[in-house]
Target: GH16 domain-containing protein
Amino acid sequence: MRDTDVKHSGPGISARDVYNISRSIWHDDFNRVAADTEVWTDNADGGGSFNIGTFATGPTAWDIKTGNVIDEDSSINGDATKNRRFTPYELEFNTVTWETILALISVVDISAMWGLLSTVPVSYAEPTSPCAHFIADPAITNTFRARSYAAAEEETDTLVALDTSPHTFKIVWTSTSVLFYIDDVLVATHAAQVPNIPLVTTYLIRTEAAAEKIMRVCCLHVELS
Model:
């Protein structure tokens, strides 16, 4: 929670106005040996695993690994006992800002998605329930893609090339739009398909070859404003 300056309320002034207009509601540095099981559930086929990794010039991270059998998936989801579902429709706040830093250790023969979903996946497939997330799927394009779903799909090619460098991915979700950013650059604006129910964090990677694939996640920060 951020420090706030106490102000006096009055007629027509909401709690959101009295206190700071934004507040941090979740932060994870992914620096534990294993996931916090009160927050995260995990799912891995076959030889999939989760363990500490380190960016070459950066902080400790968490490796989400597949096995080395084609179509094996590995994922973590923020839906455990201390459930972390987010929505811009309550608590007198109207914006969810979801931000993560991650790298794909290979961008060949993979399918991956990360962001906010309403239904926790067990394998890679573009959700047909409310969501807002990024996609890396070189079978479609060799670029990162932004996708949202409410009653139907809205998907945008961000034109940012897939690579193995760490990037900051941000989703800004309100009741009227979903904005997608990569490294603080706006890459997609969705207004036709905006989720309207609480969503949960998911990171998922699939290998499309007989080789291990890794998603390396450094941190996650979520804020209401």
In short: Residues 15-18 form the longest helix (4 residues). DSSP finds one helix and 16 strands in the chain. Residues 103 and 165 are 6 Å apart (CA to CA). The domain at 37-163+175-224 is CATH 2.60.120.200 (Jelly Rolls).
